[in-house]
Each structure stands twice: as structure tokens, then as C-alpha cells.
Amino acid sequence: MKNWGPLFCEPHYFYSMKLLLFLLIMIPINMIGQNLVKNPSFDNVNLPQCYTIPIGTANTFYILDEWSFANYGAINNNADCFHYCFDSLPWLSHIPYLGPNFQYPHTGSGFTGLYAFDYEKKPPLDSIIEYSEYLQGQLFSSLISGRNYIFSCYISLNDVCNYTFSDLSVYLSSILINESSLLLSNYSPQINNISYITVKNGWEKITIPFIASGGEQFFVIGNFTNYSLMDTIYIGGGNSDYGNKGYFYIDDVSIYPADAPVYSADAGGDQLLCEGESLVLGSPSRSQYLYWWYDAEGNLIDTTAQITVSPEISTYYVLHQKDFKFDESYDTAFVYVSDCADPLYIPNIFSPNGDGNNDVFWVRGEGISEIKNFIIYNRWGEEVHNCKCNEIGHGSNCCGWNGNFRGENAPVGVYAYYVEAVLLNGETVIKRGNVTLVR
Predict the structure, then answer these.
(1) Which of 62-66, 241-245, 325-329, 397-401 has the lowest mean pLDDT?
(2) Under CATH, domain 7-257 is a member of which superfamily?
(3) Which of 257-271, 381-395, 410-424 has the lowest mean pLDDT?
(4) Residue 417, CB half-sphere, CA atoms under 13 Å: how many?
(5) Are the C-beta atoms of residues 197 and 179 closer than 8 Å to each other?
(6) Domain 344-437: which CATH class?
């Protein structure tokens, strides 16, 4: 039936009863707040060259862990697998139909692909044979009756396709599906997509809420609609050989309770670091969350939830995070490197003459979180400036004195100041001194 595609894959479902029982006992109730799909990014494969992945037991199916093909008996082929481990970039020699803008995984090392429909006429009758491929996944635990869940995945239309449709659906089952039919139109999927899938270069996300009947532990992704009833549109941009096929890439599949708590990236907040010391950025790791840390130049430096840094100068770090449903968030932490023996830098002269140079007298310092008091007195002991500021940000000049007093230019001369500042590490620093105003 299928005459192109690189490697085909179908997974194994081997878990010993002892291990399964252990997981059910050890996983807390709130664990169901995360993605229930096994191997959701299609990263785990069973091939000798993928040495980081253990080879399965005698029950292992070919290549892709925890996934199967729901109508293998009819098509005699498995869903297509695309993986760094056995299909090195740029893939063009192995997957010639990805087009000039070949696809990268949305997350991790792999993704999968399947036919949803095929309008090509087949010999010997020169007619269209209605069929679809059905990707079957497995859950860590059964769904709970009456509970609200969300199904999501990232999907992309193959470059060769001229047509797309809005009938991609998901059937939930308490048992493993193993059909010999070309088109499973006798099934009534509980999850139905109603939007057209049109993105070719990149990924679009499908998110669909549903209510579980209870006991579902398997799910099947595919087209459950007869060709005459499908909602298809012509979008063009394909080719003449395979343009009438509806072929889709799928990655990052998730099923999770609708009330699952979600946490955004947390780099740990801005920090003050004394010269020569190190500190830890980030927050404790969360199950099924992915992390990437970048330095100020955009270089990837770590993929853990927390990192230890020891910069020589003040800089910042960016945390890129994907949660259990593969949504992305970012957070930035500034690390202020300071001479902790004298953390406040206060000039002894300033010139508020409007030339744009040294016009404001303000407290400088690496890692100031709050200025509790900044008071300036003239030679007669009058307060000419009194300021507090608890919104100190990177590069902030808050609480600065512009050299005015009672709406007029203050006279040149020497002024006394009092500063009480709180540092990012919680330390309170008090400093007194004099500043000369010149014009």
C-alpha cells in the first residue's frame, strides 16, 4: 500500500507487574496532574545504534517504545519514525519528500508520521482505496470517569501535500486496538479536531478538551471518517507525485487533567554575587519538565533545572522551559557581581547642567533591591532630597537627585547624604558622605 517512507516503527508494551504495582503505589495522587502519555516525544527507540536506549525484551516491537499501529494487519506497515539516532540530519537523502525545508522535532530527538487519507488511484481497478494509518499510544494510568482532560499534540502537514482536512480524531479505549480494516470508520472517536491543519514549515498545536468515560488506557490518532464525508480543502504547494495524499507529522502528544497545575519558568530571581564566589540559579526540578539555560551571548550552557554560576562580571542568564504539555516559558536572572566590601558606589561630584553627562546624583551598586532612605542635606541641614525606592531593576536610576531644590536650581557647593539600601542577599548597607554640586 505504501511505497515511500524511511524506517517504520512499532513499539513494545512490556512492563512487569511488579514494576507497575510499584509505580502505582509510589506515584502520589497529584502525579495525574502531569502528562499521562508514555514516550510522548517519540524519543525512546529500540535500535542497537541508539546505545542510550536499552534494548527491549522478547515482547519488544520494532523500534518505537510504547507506541503501536492500530490497523497493522490491514496495511502491513507501521507508522513512520523520524529520529536523530537512525536518521541523521539533514535527512534529505533518507526522507526525500520532506522538501527543501525539512522538519526538525518540536522537542527531543524524534517525531512520527502517518497517512490520514490518500486520493491517489490504485491499480488494478484504478480507483481510490479508502484507508488511514492509526497511531496508537498508551497511558501511564487509566482515565477517571467524569473527569475533564485535555488532549494536545503538535502537528505539521507534509510539504508534498496539496490537500489538508479537519477530521483528525482520537479514539480512547480500555483495550489495545488491533484491527485488520483499512479505514476504521466504524469507530466513534471521543476527541475530534475541527480546524484545518495547514502549517508545513514548523509545528502547530492542537488542544482539545474532553470528559473521560473511565478506564481508558489507550488512544488512537487517525482519520475515522469516510472519504465522502471528510472536510478537505486544497492549499497547494505540493507536488504532482504525492500531492493528493494527506500525510501529517506528529510530535509531543499529551493527555492531562484540565485542572493540572502548571508552573512557568523560574530562574530564581536576580542575585548578588561577591567577586570570586558562585551561586545556584533556578528552582528544584519538576517531573516531566524540560530545561535549557543560555548565557548572555545565547550559548546553551546546561539542561538541568538548576545551575551553578560564577561569572567574573555582572551578567544575566536565560532559562527556557517546556512544561509537561510542552508549552514554553522563559525567565531571566541577572547576577550582579560586586565588591562586597563596598557594595555601594556613590560619586563625590555631579554636574546637573543639562548636558546629558552626570546630570543626576544617584546611588550606584550591583545587586541593590531596595533603597529605604536616600536623604541629601545642604550646608544648613535642610533636606533638599528625600527618596525611597523598592522597584530597583537592572540599570535603574531611581531615587536620583537632579540638583533642584524647591523648584529651582540648588546652588553649587558641598552637600551631605545618607543612604540606607537593602541588597539582593538581604543585607542592609548604610553609607554617609558628601557630594559636590558643580554646574
Answers:
(1) 62-66
(2) Galactose-binding domain-like (2.60.120.260)
(3) 381-395
(4) 27
(5) no
(6) mainly beta
